[in-house]
Amino acid sequence: MLEGTETVAVRFRGGGFTPLPGRYSAWLAFLIGLAAWQGVCSLGWVSPLFLPSPFRIAVALSQLVISGEIWPHLWASLIRIGGGWLVGTVAGLAIGLAMGLLTLARAVGMPMVSALFPIPKIALLPLLILWLGIGETAKIATIALGVFFPTVIAVYSGVDAVPRNLIRMAQSFEVPTAAIVWKVILPGAMPAILAGFRISAATALLLVVSAEMIGAETGLGAFVLEAGNLMQTDRLLAGVVILSLLGLVIGRAISILERRLLRWR
Amino acid sequence: MELLVQSVSHDFADLAVLRDISFRVAPGEILALVGPSGCGKSTLLAIIGGLLHPQKGRVATIGAPPDGSFNPMTFVFQDFALLPWRSVADNVGFVLEHAPLDASERGNIVADVLRRTGLVEFAHSYPKQLSGGMRQRVGIARALAVRPELLLMDEPFSALDAQTRDLLIEDFVSLMSGNRMGAVYVTHNLEEAARLADRVVVLSRRPARIREIVELPLARESRDALFVAAHQRSLWSLIRDEAAAAAREIADA
Q: What count of CB pairs under 8 Å joins A to B?
């Protein structure tokens, strides 16, 4: 039927604009950057005092690990982050939940949280040292305060965003109030709560370094500061590498938690 | 158990919604509530189900609910209201978790209603993995699990496409037959009302008053397309002018 008829294929015009997954490009770019850095240092274009080469940083890092010098610092920082984050998170969960559920708590809490949230918490460290002494408590309290506010806001907005129809559904089946909170509101708010964890963990890392730079002899912040004072830039940057690895590990842990708890999404 | 709605009136702030609504729902009866869009049908259903307190009038029941009913008046929601983090079986089980049942009794009830609603193979699926029609099957299974006496259905099939809706209505008709369960069924779809209801309460536009209560004579299972079309037309003639006026009101607002 089509014999002898000239046909023209429809031209494909749907290409592009679809991001393809690139598995290796990120690693490749990272390695190229590292190689360029090493090249600049090896050619002697910059003084190793100001910018040590990646190789020298790696050597410093391995010495720190092998000699065991870094472990007390890392341990001290981890204790402060863990303690501060835990206290701030527990308090933030309780207050955020109360504000999400109770009209009175919301009316009282919202203006207070809005007023106190923007204060840079590190500015309170001197005051907290006056109150609590120079020891661990003041540092942990600073971190706890820094963690508390983003947690309150995340939990409150998470609870507030739980679809009303799910709560009404549970009420229509006469599910007891405590069970509605535990089985409907908390799981419904979980995505927002975990997103808040991500922010509060980053805040905790930021604050631990700042607090340790102000008044501590151990901890990664104190270590980095001391290396800087002694112009040991390779050790300084080795400390920074450890801090960024710590940040990566924490972020990864939260991602795993999200995947576990939010499988339904 | 018989449901009694007595002189219910309700306002939202300055907005008059319901005016002096009274009717009865006999045991096992399906009563459809129809009316122009936005006339307050869903508000009335929320009042009947105890989710909203009426400003005037009252809702009451006559006679004890049957033994073994965990929730005599049970909602089926337009948007399904499933917990997205629970599987199908756990969504159904959710409404039994506070009932005086041990785990095996609860499991038996869940298995039974999943079988009756054709959901057995989806028991471990999550809501997001299901089509809209399947999700509403879960909503119906959940309602059946508490052994209700009266279903309160708020446009249960209106979020579904036409074919899915027809299939689900057929299944619903067979679920309801041979069962002494009744229903108050809110819909703006007059065809659904003509297919399913024993009586149709026609509401006026807001503030809604009862315009007429229409009895549909034939048993549900024996209604054919002709019957449904004829009654759909006569219902439409009752609300056509009101619906047009309501649409103009919405456009003016």
A: 51
Indicate yes or no: CB of A264 within 8 angstroms of CB of B71: no
Q: What are the start-end ranges of the H helices in chain A?
A: 25-42, 54-67, 70-101, 103-116, 125-132, 136-160, 164-172, 177-180, 186-215, 220-229, 233-261
Q: Is the ipTM of this complex over 0.85?
A: yes
Q: Which of A70-79, A89-98, A182-191, B213-222 has the lowest mean pLDDT?
A: B213-222
* Å between B31 CA and nearest CA of chain A: 20
Domains of chain B: 1-68+163-253 (3.40.50.300), 86-146 (no CATH)
Nearest CA to B140 out of B161, B162, B163, B115 is that of B115
Pick from A171, A173, A176: CB nearest B146: A173
Query: In the structure encoding, which two tokens stand for residue B90, read together?
Result: 């756990």
Q: Domains for chain A: give ranges and CATH numbers.
A: 74-261 (1.10.3720.10)
The answer to whether B90 contacts chain A (CB < 8 Å) is no
How far is C-alpha A103 from the chain's CA centre? 31
**Any chain A CB within 8 A of the CB of B53?**
no
Residue-wise pLDDT tens digits, A147-195? 999 999 999 999 999 999 999 999 999 999 999 999 999 999 999 999 9
CB contact under 8 A, A175 and B98: yes
